[in-house]
Amino acid sequence: MNVLIDKFDVFAGGFWLTLQICLLAAIGALLLGAVVAVLRISPVPPLRAVGTAYVNIFRNMPLTVVMFFAAFGLPALGSNADFLRLPGLDAVFNRLGTDLPYFRFALIALVLYTAAFVCEALRSGVNAVPPGQAEAARSLGLTFSQNLRHVVLPQSWKASVVPLGSVIIAMIKNSALAGFFGVVGDLAQTADQLTSAEGFAFVPVAIGISIGYLIMTVPLGALLDRIEKRQAVAR
Amino acid sequence: MTTGEPLIVLDSVNKWFGPLHVLDDVSLSVGRGEVVVVIGPSGSGKSTLCRTINRLEPINSGTITFDGQPLPAEGKALAKLRSEVGMVFQSFNLFAHKTILENVTLGPVKVRKEKPAAVRERALALLDRVGIANQADKFPAQLSGGQQQRAAIARALAMQPKAMLFDEPTSALDPEMVGEVLEVMTSLASEGMTMVVVTHEMGFARHAANRVIFMADGQLVEDAPPAEFFANPRSARAKDFLSKILTH
C-alpha cells in the first residue's frame, strides 16, 4: 500500500485533471442537454425531430465509440477541436496546462454523450408537471417560451434534480475512459501508468484511484439526498 | 342583452378523438354580454366544446370565429386571442410555485407588458372583489378549493377578457364551497360579461343564464331560454337527463 503514500502527488494530479474534465464536461452537458430538451418538447415538428434524433444517436451509442469518433474522427476531418479555443475557455485551458487536443476531444465526447441523458432527465421533470399548468399558461396567452420560462421549467426542476444528479455521477465515472484516448494524467490513466509502466501492484493502485472517484461522487450524491429531503418538506 | 354581431360563432364544427365523434356538426353563436350554460351527460362533448373556443382543443372541420376573426393557427396570433378569452378550469390550475398575487399578475405583466405596479393594484382589487384579498401572499396549496377557484377567476379577469369560458368550475369543489364560486360567477354575469359555462349546477343555469344548451353524444340537441328548457324540454334525451338530475 506504500504506493498510495509514495505516489500521492501522482494520484493528486490525476484527481485534479479528472475534476477539471468533469467540471467542464458537466457545464457543457447541462447547457447542451437543456437545448436538446427544449428542441424535444418544442411545438415545431422539425425541431422535435432534431432533438429526438440527437437523443437516439448519443444515448444508444457506446461512449467508447463516441470517444473514438472525437479522438480519431475529428483529426481525420482536419480539426484539432480548435473551435473550443473560445476566449474565456482558452484561458482556462492554458492556465490548467492541459492545452492538448486530446483533452478537448475527450471533453467533446463526454459532453455530446452526457447531453442526451441530461435532456431526458430534464424532460422527465417537464413531464412531471401537471398538464393543467401549461394549459392555464397557454389560456392566458403566454407564448411557448414564456410558458417554459415562467411556469413549466421552475416546477420541472424539482422532479429533474435527482435524475440529473445520477447522470452527472455517471458522467464522472465515464470520464475514466478519457485516459485511454490520449488524455495523459487523469485518474484512470494514472492507474495504467503506475501499474504497467512503473510496476506497482494493481490492487493498491486501484484502491487509490477509487478513492479519487469517490471523493467526487459521494459528496454529490449526499448533496442530492439533501436537496430531495428539503423538497419533501416544501411539498 | 345581445347587441350587434355575435362574439363567438361556431359553424359546423366537427371533432374526433380517434374513432370517437366528440363534436358532431355543432353550430352555435354567442352574443356579446350573453351567458350561455352548456349542460348534458358526461361524455357528451360539452367540455370539449368549451375548450375549442380558445383552441386548447383543435377541431377537425368547421370554423370558429371570435370577435369577427377566425381562430388563428398555433403561434403569436393565437396567443393574443387567448389573452382575450379568460378560462377557468375544473381543477383550478393555479401556478403551484407562485403566490396568489403572482398568479394574477403574471399574464398582464408578461403577455400585455403592463407596468407591474399598476397590475398589482388591479390584481389586489380583483382579489378583493372575489373575497380573498387577505390570501394574496399565500401559495395555492394553502387555500381551500373554493378560494383557489375564485383566485383562478381573478387571474382570468386580470387580462380584462372579452369573454370568459368556465369548464365545470364547481365540479371539483366540496358542496359548501360551490356557493361562493357561483356567487362570483353570478355577479360577473349580471355585469354583462360574455360567458360560456359548462356546469352541472342547474340553479345557476336557471337564474343566471340567458340560454341553456343541451348536448348529448357530441350533438347540440337543444338551445332554449332556461325557463323554457327546464319547464318544457323538447327532446326525449333532455327529458331523460332532467328527470335523472332533478329527482334528487
TrEMBL record, chain A:
Pfam families: BPD_transp_1. Keywords: Amino-acid transport, Cell membrane, Membrane, Transmembrane, Transmembrane helix, Transport. It is a multi-pass membrane protein. One of its GO terms (biological process) is amino acid transport. One of its GO terms (molecular function) is transmembrane transporter activity. InterPro entries: AA_ABC_transptr_permease_3TM (IPR010065), ArtM/GltK/GlnP/TcyL/YhdX-like (IPR043429), MetI-like (IPR000515), MetI-like_sf (IPR035906). This is Amino acid ABC transporter permease. Belongs to the binding-protein-dependent transport system permease family. HisMQ subfamily. The keyword GTP-binding does not apply. The chain crosses the membrane at residues 15-39, 60-81, 101-119, 159-181, 201-224. PROSITE patterns: ABC_TM1. Residues 15-224 form the ABC transmembrane type-1 domain. One of its GO terms (cellular component) is ATP-binding cassette (ABC) transporter complex. The keyword Transmembrane helix applies. It is found in: Cell membrane. Its main location: membrane.
